Amino acid sequence: MLERWNIFGMRGGVLVALGLALAVPNVGCGKKKADDTEKDEKASKKKSDDDDTEKDSKKKKKSDDDSDDTAKKKKKSDDDSDDTAKKKKKSDDDSDDDSKSAKKASKAPKSVDDDDDDEDDAPSKKKLKGLKPSKGDVDIVGSWSVAGKTDAGKKYKGVSKISKIGGSMFKATWTIGGEKQEGIIFKDGNVLSCGWAPKKDLGVVAYLVKPGMLDGVWFEEQHTTLGNEILKGPASKDTLSGFYTITKGETPGDKKKYSGTVNITIYKSGVYGMTWKMGSQGMKGLGLRSNHFEGSDTDVLSAGFNDGGDAGVLQYIIYGDGKSMKGHWAIPPKGGGEPGWGMETMTKDE
Question: Is 300 in a helix, a strand, or coil?
Answer without folding.
Answer: strand
